[in-house]
Predict the structure.
Amino acid sequence: MTKQVHYSDYLQLDKILNAQALESDLLQQHAHDEMLFIVIHQAYELWFKQLLFEIDSIAGIMQNPVNDNSPELQTVVHRLNRMVTILKVLVHQIDIMETMTPMDFLDFRDMLRPASGFQSWQFKLVEAKLGLKYQHRHGQEYYVSQLRQEQIDVIRKVESEKSFIELLNAWLERMPFFEETDNWINFRATTTTPALAEWDGGHSPFWTDYRNIYSTGLAEAEQNNLQFFDSVFSDAAGTEGRHLSPRASRAALFIMLYRGYPILQLPFQLLNSLLEIDEQLSTWRYRHMNMVHRMIGTRIGTGGSTGRDYLKGALDKHYIFVEIARLTSFLIERRKLPVLSPEMEKRLGFVS
Amino acid sequence: MTKQVHYSDYLQLDKILNAQALESDLLQQHAHDEMLFIVIHQAYELWFKQLLFEIDSIAGIMQNPVNDNSPELQTVVHRLNRMVTILKVLVHQIDIMETMTPMDFLDFRDMLRPASGFQSWQFKLVEAKLGLKYQHRHGQEYYVSQLRQEQIDVIRKVESEKSFIELLNAWLERMPFFEETDNWINFRATTTTPALAEWDGGHSPFWTDYRNIYSTGLAEAEQNNLQFFDSVFSDAAGTEGRHLSPRASRAALFIMLYRGYPILQLPFQLLNSLLEIDEQLSTWRYRHMNMVHRMIGTRIGTGGSTGRDYLKGALDKHYIFVEIARLTSFLIERRKLPVLSPEMEKRLGFVS
Amino acid sequence: MTKQVHYSDYLQLDKILNAQALESDLLQQHAHDEMLFIVIHQAYELWFKQLLFEIDSIAGIMQNPVNDNSPELQTVVHRLNRMVTILKVLVHQIDIMETMTPMDFLDFRDMLRPASGFQSWQFKLVEAKLGLKYQHRHGQEYYVSQLRQEQIDVIRKVESEKSFIELLNAWLERMPFFEETDNWINFRATTTTPALAEWDGGHSPFWTDYRNIYSTGLAEAEQNNLQFFDSVFSDAAGTEGRHLSPRASRAALFIMLYRGYPILQLPFQLLNSLLEIDEQLSTWRYRHMNMVHRMIGTRIGTGGSTGRDYLKGALDKHYIFVEIARLTSFLIERRKLPVLSPEMEKRLGFVS
Amino acid sequence: MTKQVHYSDYLQLDKILNAQALESDLLQQHAHDEMLFIVIHQAYELWFKQLLFEIDSIAGIMQNPVNDNSPELQTVVHRLNRMVTILKVLVHQIDIMETMTPMDFLDFRDMLRPASGFQSWQFKLVEAKLGLKYQHRHGQEYYVSQLRQEQIDVIRKVESEKSFIELLNAWLERMPFFEETDNWINFRATTTTPALAEWDGGHSPFWTDYRNIYSTGLAEAEQNNLQFFDSVFSDAAGTEGRHLSPRASRAALFIMLYRGYPILQLPFQLLNSLLEIDEQLSTWRYRHMNMVHRMIGTRIGTGGSTGRDYLKGALDKHYIFVEIARLTSFLIERRKLPVLSPEMEKRLGFVS
């Protein structure tokens, strides 16, 4: 190759390193910590761009039928894990912000109005692409009032497209195993009753069997877990307000239960990395909330909100993969698991 | 010295390394991950012991009148910062626990009943010694039902003694400065009205002046911050349910405002490290809560509680130093600060 | 279950929390920081015990022929990753030690002679079980002089048994693929010469082909990389001082190159986690070395060594999986990779 | 304020988020991981800019005579600690880079030649501003050959100006205490001999006294530590190749020894934060070196160097504050410290 690439050109450092203009300098009231404030937000936005880039690539792969152990699935898991690693650094980065004391922030805070971290449309895009819809957002009106129209348009467009969790649902629904045949478990006649056999529309004795074992293991105080179980897995359950269909939920639980089989190893890693992403996002919001509280107390933020309250509201509502997380409630001990038939074991990649 | 110390004896490794007996081995159903479960809890308890040791040493120092820039105060700050460093590792350590999957936990979970992390009386002691009283605890009855009588007795005894935050209050109240004289600021006649002069019982024109500046800077939507201001700093305010008196609160705010003066540097570091401790404790509870949710979902914990709900309840209620954190709400810009008189500057250690 | 398990009994906290006896208290010269010194070393030893427990379980699995995508291999990878997570916390834990200043250490340092962190036989066991032999240790004589005979015996016994890296070598050698047939790649006649076909004893045209591509891609200044290549992969190469045979090395490189194929996904994760373990161990030694330097400078340690020099010597010599790490030198661009035949693709688990 | 500041304008996100052009896209061989490669380097450069900004502000303060407990000194310590916090995140950020596997890097590596991380002139500026001179750099010629002339000029200019460590030396030399009077310690006649009194040119009996105590405490094997002691503290010692004069070194040691006195508290924190900075820089280089080794093995880097060798060479040579670190070698136990006279105690801010 004859072209000579130079580090500073390649990284376009003339742009990157000349994008810091302090408002406090414009107003001739230089506030030292404003540089930190700008740089850290720019670093966050760079990483948000990277997160979006990874999500788009993953969604691109998931849009096509993905074989459960194809190289593409490995790529999906790898990139989700990269997102987790990035999010951990973003959480750590709050330590840097916290070296700014409230008094130091006050030196330039008023000069920034009405700018606010709330206006990071890239972060909202991350949430939207993963699966957060407008109607589930905390503080919807505020959200519309703060962003520019073109930014709202971009987010709305993303909200109207297939999100990652919808692609995930489709992928889980495609898993063939347990719906198609009656004979893939070693029937345990004692635990299956005709009544239960009706439970999921007669598709699979596995789930009626499983429901029975689960039900037996519940403590007295846990009885409404069984109703919850039915509402998640039964085909009679409505789909209102949920991302994962009963069928997809059954597939996900099956993956968790039998994750040791070759064909389920990557799918299990995939589900696990989604929980990690939610957890890191959640930790980020929580530490962010604490930081805002420490910085401005009960004062109103530069964007006009009581910053802490907004973040607190989002804490619970913005979990994307909560439906996967709660499947944990439905696990049973490994030694009580229905034993799969040799035929099924073979299909799951186990070669004796 | 003639005595020969050996590493293994010195660390009593025969005790430490022979204190892991797996219930699943006793029941001849070896569950590999139970070792991790034991070891990580033991590591936590070791560190809790260290935290208690540091708190006791700090309280010992604070029980005596502490000069504001004595070596002892430096020691207090140093040890509080060490506690922060330890807490950060404890938060990080949750990563290790999360390498245990819910299915792996199920292999031995039932064997542990009714043991529960809730029974860590050392952690409760940490909270109590810092300042959390029984009546402010989330889930008081549960707490009594779970611990052994001798453990409850220990905690109750600590609750009846002077906690760290009470020692802190006394120390802040001892700060002499602003109560004793009318003349230590450069009076800004324009901002002080007779009405305001009455505000803190006539002790100090500084605070009436300060209140005026603060009030002027409040946005329209923030007007109830002024009532809040009065409820925190005015001597007319009751003391019901609070740890810091108006006098101590004024001293703490003064420290934040004028932290640059030599005599206030260590006091400022001290207040800051307390906020760090609360934040790390809070992050620990939050990640802990998420981990429990991921591990058992909505099932009932081994101790009989819905673990996640308990932890969630504690999140807000167990902040110890919230009264310091909220002082941030009352800061004003540095350039608007009342200018101190040369006499006062000298007392604060500033040598021109 | 009728047995009632209690947290404090289960964790044997009476042992764990009563194993801290300060030498400085015995000598009636209480040194506050000695408690930290004891507790942190005990925490380290607890985690070393856990690391040993994981290594033993992994070695137990690897001793049997492990199918390349069996549940057992997944377990191996999972536990290696857990070890990485633990090691990261151990590195972080050095932050706590560093809250002890040199002057604070001096308060009790002389009382500990000749105890020394060097006497942690558990850490030496970790190294030995992974694959470090006596003759490759830095400072062998010192090592013998410091430990007790029974501890030396334990380590020597482990050194004489199959270490993890030897089990790894056997596992890699068992991989069947490329040795058995001439026809599993799409022959690229242009790049293969008869001379090269001789290269690995005629077993496989793949490697002669690969060597040719690799050789072509080397810059002029890199020509001795080719000799290095031959010394690693050619059967003519001696086995003196190496853990991985040419055959095993070829298998490992193949895994790195074609990691996308289903059957190679877990093996790739396994190799990767070994590099992580070495890297974390190395970072631990490095930060440890810096800490010792900061603590005692060029003085001689309590055990009689110049602590820093020992640790520095160990830095390079104690890499266990260096032979895997250096395989990176032999990678070629993905687009230049020999294309596998459909038959081979099928064997690697790819279903078209 | 009537001006309306918007988040995206304020952060100039149009520049920041449009500065990623993939070489692999230009060559129509899209390599997914190149985006990560660009973004992470840009994030590093943003933080290097922030580090430079902090160093400049600190140097600006130190250029003026700084009172030992003035607000300015507190600002210096605060900003040095911020630098430590930033460096910790930069070290952590390597985790993200390590999610790129060697094969993924190969997909675009050749397209970047001869660009190289070595061309980060900002990082070289950080080193230069702290105190690293051209003649102490590892690989000087390489350094000149890689950078652009204007970048070399900038670094050379900085090298010719007063670096931070030179300002530190001057500040330490300004400390008045022990040079001026014979009477500020409680003379311990038994330990002082006339011969020793000559040691530092007769300026101060303190140091002759101290040298005697130190010498007595040395083990037999440590005798050349005494020569080292003399070479560091004696005025007869040459100044060739050193940053800190004997006088400044004495002041720094005195600060470490008597750090508890009010006036020495901030100076002690300052010295400590410098050691932290060196340690984080060193950990960064070490992990960086390991990462490069893992990524390209023994191949030659895009910039033409064997990347790992360069970084390894820099490891030892680029410590900036090594002269402060090694003072640890000269500490003595607190209980053996010369007792200061009441007059001196008063000057150090201790009010009885």
Notes: The CA atoms of residues 264 and 274 of chain A lie 16 Å apart. The longest helix of chain A spans residues 262-296.
